[in-house]
Structure prediction request, 447 residues.
Amino acid sequence: MPRSGQALKMIALISFTLAVGICICLCGEPSYQGKSASEWLDYWDIAGANAAFKAMGTNAVPFLIKTLEEKPSKLAEAVDKALEAHPGRIPASVEKVLPKAHPVEARRDAAAFFLGELGPVAEAAIPTLFRICCDTNENGRVQDQTWSALAKMGEKGIVLVPDYLRWLKGNDPELQVTGASLLGTVGPKAHLAVPELLKAAGGTNPSLARIAARALWKIDRQTNVALRIHTRDLQNTNTTWRQSAIISLREMGPAALEAAPQIEPFLRDPDDSMRRYAEKALGEIAPDLLASSQRQMNQHSDEQIARLIQMMREAEYPQRYRAVEAVGVFGPAAKAAVPALVEALEGFVPRTGILLSVSKQSSQRAVAEALAEIGPDARAAVPGLIARLRENSGFHPWFCRSLGRIGPDAREAAPVLEDLLQSDSAWVRLLRRRRSLGLCQPNARTR
Prediction:
């Protein structure tokens, strides 16, 4: 047979072998609604794929474990590094056929995510997840996803309690926090860890104490310890710690009734997200206190808003700033404050001090946030917000958010916003990406 014929025969044989291999591989996978597990893993709709894997249940677990264990080849990793180091140097026709590590890691990341979504049903994956978590040479993103999946195994994670305890008793602060957190996810079956968690809750590491307190509540309903630590965190100057404390107290429900009076002031916090956390927490812990507080706030809102308007126009810098922050708490009910806020949008600064430009920008940001809370009734502020956008002051996100919350009455800002979309700043690139993914809807009132 001529060489050309032999070559054609060899190509045909290889093609047939690959086709059979692919067929066997796909046929051996579970399926849902006519799609194989591989197709669902690569499906663009995460919610749809999540529903599919949950429907497949334990049948999908071996496939997800196998995918998670399939690391990219050394060649693929080298190709990714070369493409990153020399963008555009490799012809597109060549790049298209080269093996790449990124798609493999993306599939592994997705596999870990769906194992986590399956939760205790995927207990067979626990050894693989744990091994990847402990592998210092692993892909960082995949490793983060496996930690998250491991935390969702619930009481099935009891097999790893000795390892979690070892971390908790060790000298690495990060591993101590991780161990305490994962012990909490196991729940009551991790009762052997209670003495060590009590020791951690009473220690000098505040981060570890906080996580240990949450774990103690989940494992042994240690109410007094949890209340002591979480109420202490309510007084912390760190916003994240305060939010974490409110969330933890909410999880305790009526058992945290003693802390309700300390949560109640957060209903009037300048930070709208903090107000929402506090409202949800009191709804679970002390609904009667929540209702009475809201009635009291509504009864005196007009006089409070009038006093804040006067402060914005007449007081010194610190009081003016706090008044702007406070007026946003009232939301649409503070529409009477819009003229004063429009005046303040020019920016006010302390009479003394060297960081005048910083103070001015900070006050403009606070005003923009208050206008966003008022919403459509703040339409009179549109020209001022457009002017601030044109100044390129660095606070575009807050001005844009205000315009978005005002809605259709801010349509005159559209040309300026379109011009900003050509910017190279990081937040604008994020906005473009969100819009391309369909995450930004016209006139949507999102926070």
User: Anything to note?
Assistant: The radius of gyration is 28 Å. The first strand starts at residue 31 and ends at 32. The domain at 222-287 is CATH 1.25.10.10 (Leucine-rich Repeat Variant).
